[in-house]
Records
---
Amino acid sequence: MINELVQNLIAINNITEGQELSFADALSIVEIYDKMPEPNNLIDEAEEMATYDIDALEKSVIKLKEESERFLNVCLPKLNDVDFKAIAQDYSRTFYNRYQKAEKELTAYWKAYCQLNNRLDYLDLDSQEYIEAEKLCEEAKAKHDERQKTVQRLYAEYEQANKESAPVFWFRADFPETVIVRYHDIASAILTDIKRIRECGS
């Protein structure tokens, strides 16, 4: 657990120290945060690990403390400047714009069908002109219905994008800050205990 946590902190720090956060970057940070263990679970693992490999424990906890400090001192100020709401909205807006464009285009298909359908009312049912107009009308309706499927698919994608972006929309930098401060304090306490154990054992 401790080593996995260290790797996750490294990942958050590397993402934050990189270029401007994309939606994928922001979502990765949120997902890593959601998987972070309860601080007290670290204490339980450390106590168990100290009984059989205190050197490995010390090495892992030193890295945990380093990455916690890196986050709190370097990355947290950068995350505080990130507008997670705007990132989420920009992501879902892309899908909304595609849907809106397709929906507007659908109106033209519907109008073309309606015009042909209305024309049938003024034609003789037995005339060749009616037969040709009816065929064009059916073709126009088929095109409209096919296009409508595209609009429905794009709307479904927009709805899915809204769901995907919701965790990013509600995320704040102080969420990981609170738990990483605890990780840092626990790491410091564990290192102090390891030092005491070694001094007592020498």
---
Amino acid sequence: MEEKPNRGFGYWFTNVFWYHYGKIAILVVVLAIIAVWLTVDALHKEKYDLNLVVAANGPVADANAEALHAALMKEAVDVNGDGKVLINIQTIDLSDPENLEGNQQRLMLYLALPEYTLFLLDEDRSSLFCGKEDTFQPLANYGIRTDDPTGLRIYVGDKPLMRDLGGFAYYASISDWTVSGKGSKAMTQAGVNALQLILNTEE
């Protein structure tokens, strides 16, 4: 009587499992790797206590924001309770022809993120977004008086802490997502505190 060959695990894996489930297995492995990567990235991602954007139709480098960053750090508090005080200032040059579309998309992205609460925009961008509904909130809601007809922005281009940021006619606005049930009151207050510091810092 002829014995059946012992085909073993290798035969089963190649001709049964891999034949029927190979593509699914690859997909599961790839998804598992992505999930692990995202988890590790989230655990190591810095959590900022204040996020603000400086955007103008001209060159604005991160180095130009050092004086502003240093001044804000003196008054900033640990909003998220992680034992560190971190401030994130994003600078955007909206005149850069090589990155025009990308920088415009960056600005739109920050406007859509609840953690970004203070925006320092040149006159053109400020006028544009203050003309759109629900982008910024009335500054009077935060005890800040402005003569601007929109009530949504205040001129800060002449303030000492803005001096190194290219000499543009900057206006400040507050983005407060708590009005729609999102965001954080503490993060919004951090943006308000930063704006008040910019307004009140003397020479």
---
Amino acid sequence: MGLCVCVCVGGMGALVGVAMAIEDNYSCVGGEHTAQRGDTVWGVVAGRCSGNRQHAYDDVVAAHPHIEAWGMAQGEVIVIPHSGG
């Protein structure tokens, strides 16, 4: 009986770990994006990505440390990753 409980608890722990890992993932319509007037990094990520958009946003900002998070200059080009996690 005790072995059964241990196996069940271990299995549930593994499922929770997998679920958390999946939640951290995102997928995007990746590639270059040329900013239009009024574009923000968050707006671009929200429009092109699904899944954990915060993680996608963090990856874009990390890859482009020169961009201003609250707005981009018109014509500025950023690269959106296809996926991450």
---
Amino acid sequence: MRSLRIGYCLCLLLCLSGLTGPTALAEDADDVNIFGYFQTEFQHERPDDYAKRSSFLLQHLNVFLQKDLTRSWTSFINFEFTNSFSANKNWGTLDVQEAWVRYRYDNRFNLKLGLQIPIFNGLNEIKNRTPILPYIIRPIVYESSLEEIIPIDQYVPNRAYVQAYGFLPYEGFKFDYALYMGNSPNINSDPEEGQTGVDTTDTFLFGGRVGFRQEEFKFGFSMTYDRSNLLSDILRENFGEIGVGRELGRYRLGGDLSYHSGGLFLEGELISVRYDNEGPTVDLDLDFYYATVGYEFDERWSAYVSYWKTRERSFVNLEDAQTFNPISLDQVLELEIPTVGLSCRINDRVTVKAQWARVWQEIESTGLAYDITSSSHYFALAISAFF
């Protein structure tokens, strides 16, 4: 069934490509515009405590379809393929990340309706534009190729359905704003439970960002609120089917800052995820930050140094609950990743990159009475292209 749905999607892409080839585009400037980005890499990982490995990988491919409907209305679709996607071999993922129409009044007001990546901090909306980003592996909570390992959807909102945004100029300054809403994270993925892809609750995601810009200096603050069934997932993952935990209100708080001066560029972000209604028996928190300092030597060459850190706390104590198996879990997972990189812009459409990182991981778990510490060195070469 999964392969059949993917086949329909690929057929649609091929049909649209055939309808909008070079000849059609030349004849009708208002026809569908097809473009995209992809990044292919060679990666070598050398862990301290197990065997090293090397691999080539189509890290991701984004295919965009854009059409101007009128002077004020634009439509846009974004398909993302990750990790050398193959339906037959069960490799990687295929996602329809965006499918929206936008009404543009002017720079002060835009309205997007449909599936979209909402504005959150500085990187979320542009994370798939790899030819203009210096990284091979992006700051870890934005790296879609690692979604099977990192709980990306918990750190940043990846889907909204209604968004108003724009900027207001004032005496050389610009004030940015964005307000959006979408589904809660409680989406059905089991056909036996009914229609998939729909929210199983009557709650919503609400979020937004306010920011300030002056020339090459920019900063902003972001926030979202929704209600999550993460507690149920944790109980099910660690203790099996023992019933359903209560939904918890979830806040994401974010801050971002960037600055460019000559060849120097600085950027960084903070993300803090907090759950309310926790009480003394539940504590679920996530934190992330990254900071990057880089320099563009000329129009082609640039280099950077960056540091990323995540921290996830899962504390559940239901020993007093009326259950057959009393539950106690106290676990902290930390990742620290210093990294350096170099990129060379071959032309306006092709960029070659290199990146080294040291990945240090520590898991502390009181409930299960074990601690794990591991580290590895990661090196990658990649080519990133715009087509």
